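Researcher: Here's a chain I'd like modeled. Treat it as a single chain, no partners, no ligands.
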Amino acid sequence: MKSHLIAIDHVQIAAPQGCEIAARQFYGFVLGLEEIEKPLALQARGGCWFHCGSQQLHIGVERDFKPSRKAHPAFRVADLDALRQRLRSQQIKVTEDDSLPGVRRLYAEDPWGNRLEFAEAAD
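Model: Modeled as a single isolated chain. Structure tokens:
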């Protein structure tokens, strides 16, 4: 019997030790994701988890952390203009990208320099 991949369960983004306050501020407050309590057995590892639609976003602590500048998650957005404004109001640099036909998108960085993409279908 062959196994079949059916969905992405979660994406994990690496962050430095002590990242939790900044993660909750950025992913929770700025992006509006709801935090999920990590299972007790994993809490000692640090980091935190969030709901993102029907998937999860995990912020995990990496000992010799280096930000991911190329590999990145892409988040589907319902109102890219409002998100852009929200990011800028928090002094977060936004980089516009119109190179993909039919998609409006922008890039930003999380508090540790990880690249993030935000995309919305063009009208």
